[in-house]
Amino acid sequence: MPGPMAWAQAGAGAPAAPAAEAQQPRDTLGRDTPRGAVLGFMRAARQGQDELVPLYLDTNLKGQPAVALAHQLYVVLDSRLPARLNELSNRPEGAPTNPLKPDQDVVGTINTSNGPLEIILERVTPKNSGPVWLFSKETLSLIPDVYDEVDLITLDRFLPDTLAKPRIAGIRLFEWLALVLILPLGYRLLAVLNWPLKPLVAFGRRRLGAPARPTGDEVPGLVRLVVLAIAIRWVLTNLDLPLLERQFWAAAARLLAIVALGWFLLLVNEFGEGYLRRRFASRELTALLRLARRGADVLGIAFCGFLVVRYFGFDPTAALAGLGIGGIAVALAAQKTLENVIAGLSLIFDKAVRVGDSLKFGETVGTVDYIGLRSTRIRTLDRTILSVPNGQIASVGIETLSERDKFWFHPVIGLRYGTTVDQMRAVIDGVRALLLENVNTDSASVRVRFFRLGSFSLDIEVFAYVFAGDWESFLTIQQDLLLQIMDVIERAGTAIAFPSQTLHIAEGPASAPRATVASSN
């Protein structure tokens, strides 16, 4: 049990230590929190417990005057208090809106002929009891005047007892029927707005570049849901419904608005994906846009679920923390997959590799057939498909053959031994002139040099870059150049050397050696 000092602090209204608050007995009437005080008072007044309702009031009245004041307060709250009971604080210290008055909590604001009236609870400490929340004296002093203003339309006198008397979960039967039948009917009837809005919607879609809708449904479902939610809120301000039933319909209106919001977010994601596809027509971005849209859809739905949970008074912090821990575990388990996905995004954004590129990957040469988020498919020269994880592509060197701006023409010409100096000069000058005159070669890169006395040939190096659109075009240009070089060699009076070798054979130790030359082609 807490010591005397802890009880003294609780009696003075100061915040007690956490251990003392945990051991402090709860009020049997639920008055230890603002939400408990309001719900307990409404329950006692609804059940006609006249001996309990005055205990929720901070008043000096006793007996029947206190009961009458409590009845007037119940009527005012039941007909005018905003249906936000789930937003009331459920903590012993409350949720004070004014830091200068920490022992006050505003549970709602009521519109009156004299202006808005705040319904205030005060935290007081009666004798021989812990702190409890009671309706303040200031609020109670104005309740009789507000009670005289309560004159709303009631449906009870227009409904038969078979619909007005039976209740399900505290809600009258006719309201359940309205929820199940009238709301869907109203949703369908709102289709009459299609005709006046059709030209406006068509104009807007043309300005945004969106495709025309295949059906005549010009009013999106989310707009109908918003209209129904607004209609419900308007009805609640003009009908005399009990607080519990107004809370029921307020929750229905809030749910309709949240569903409409989620629907709107999904449509925005769909429009954004379509717009980006039309704006950046690329096969590589298709998978990325699809993944981004799915992720945005999940986030939108999760956000709407968060709003629903918060509206009904649940704290999703623990669930979010659990999801965060679970996400870390999944990320660790799928580390390689995430590595490949991130590498795929890098390849797509950096455009390091594109569909149709001809590349050399290690010992593999092929053409990129498809770039996905996890792997890239390469069609090899054997016409097979090689699937390579994107993480592997991003971590090794890739030679993109199709990105060459020039092709290297680099043959080595071997002339036979016996070629004279004049013939060698004629060949060198002829090949150089041939390359300089060709429109497909880069004249600044042309180099023709006699650079080596080979084992069986006199070697001339030919160096030049050739302009060609692709590898096939380069092969055609290279073929023409080689044929013209052969013609230059023939005109110079020499020929291309054939591979040959010389063998020396000795006939005996006493006789002189005789050399024999054998040539092999």
Explain how this protein is built.
The protein has 521 residues and is an alpha+beta fold. It has four domains: 4-149, no CATH class; 167-332; 337-403, SH3 type barrels, CATH 2.30.30; 407-491, Alpha-Beta Plaits (2-Layer Sandwich). The chain contains 16 helices and 16 strands. It has helices at residues 4-11, 18-23, 34-46, 63-80, 137-149, 161-164, 173-189, 194-208, 221-236, 243-279, 283-311, 317-333, 335-350, 390-395, 421-437, 471-491; strands at 104-112, 115-124, 132-135, 167-168, 171-172, 358-361, 364-371, 375-380, 385-389, 399-400, 407-409, 412-416, 447-453, 457-466, 503-505, 514-516. The strands form five sheets. A five-stranded antiparallel β-sheet has the order 9-8-7-6-10. Helix 3 (34-46) packs across helix 4, helix 9 (221-236) packs antiparallel against helix 10 (243-279) and helix 10 (243-279) runs antiparallel to helix 11 (283-311). The longest helix is centred in the middle third of the chain and has 37 residues, at 243-279. The radius of gyration is 45 Å and the shape is rod-shaped. It starts with a helix and ends in a 5-residue tail after the last strand.
Q: Span from first to last CA?
A: 112 Å
- Roughly how much helix do the residues carry, as a percent range? 40-55%
Category by helix and strand content? alpha+beta
The main β sheet shows up as: 5 strands, antiparallel
Care to count the β-strands? Answer: 16
Strand order of the largest sheet: 9-8-7-6-10
Overall tally of structural domains:
4
How does the overall form come out from the CA principal axes? rod-shaped
